[in-house]
Amino acid sequence: MNNYGIPANALITVAGTVGVGKSTLTAALAERLSFKTSLEQVDHNPYLEKFYHDFERWSFHLQIYFLAERFKEQKKIFELGGGFVQDRSIYEDTGIFAQMHADQGTMSATDFETYSSLFEAMVMTPYFPHPDVLIYLEGSLPSILNRITERGREMEIQTDRSYWEHMHERYSVWINQFTACPVLRLNIDEYDVNDPASVDAILAQIAAVINPAKGA
Ligand SMILES: Nc1ncnc2c1ncn2[C@@H]1O[C@H](COP(=O)(O)OP(=O)(O)O)[C@@H](O)[C@H]1O
Ligand SMILES: Nc1ncnc2c1ncn2[C@H]1C[C@H](O)[C@@H](COP(=O)(O)O)O1
């Protein structure tokens, strides 16, 4: 247990749509808690850029790749005994991305079924403890689109606005039905990762979600 009342072996997962600020918050929380980070690797992903140019051709390959990467990360978190802040949950791969492409017809029904059965088989292993808390970052679409632009990944900037609109909407439906672990919702206009007092306030909220009985 640290000064914030958060167990040293906790698993904190940060969720939310592309560009909302997950990686930035993950790094800030991990630094403050002296936790390790589990980050999404974008630069060495062999499919991501191809996927943005042709969803239909590459969506299955990309989902399998992300699933394999997240499984390796889960295994590492499990073997090291927790104490991690994780950038994006595996629940979003299936519940948002794979589902969205299946619904839009950019992933075939057969591919989606194959992906889903692999996902379920992986989740049933001991390597998949539920997070102690899932921090859900939410904000307005215009703010998020500005962040995507400012970050400057060309493949995302070139992607049609309707893709991000659809994803933003899907996330808001998804989180309202999410029950796999406790959720802490944070509005991106209501914290500042560069302000230590603001990060402290988030840590107090995390502790309160993890230890509800203590009213932390
Ligand atoms: N709290 C914040 N205030 C202002 N800009 C932010 C904040 N958090 C993230 N950003 C910026 O928004 C962009 C996307 O953030 P990032 O953490 O990479 O998002 P994600 O991991 O959710 O895709 C980056 O340019 C980052 O510097
Ligand atoms: N499961 C996924 N399917 C498709 N695209 C995905 C998936 N997970 C992440 N992505 C994309 C979205 C972004 O372009 C990058 C990184 O995500 P971010 O939310 O910026 O961390 O990968």
TrEMBL record:
Family matches, as InterPro entries: DCK/DGK, Deoxyribonucleoside_kinase, DNK_dom, P-loop_NTPase
Gene3D superfamilies: P-loop containing nucleotide triphosphate hydrolases
Deoxynucleoside kinase domain segment(s): 12-210
Domain of life where this protein originates: Bacteria
Record flagged with keyword Transferase: yes
CDD domains in the cross-refs: dNK
Keywords: Kinase, Transferase
A Pfam family recorded for this sequence: dNK
Entry's Gene Ontology molecular function annotations: kinase activity
Family from the record: Belongs to the DCK/DGK family.
Protein name per UniProt: Deoxynucleoside kinase
Organism name: Paenibacillus taichungensis
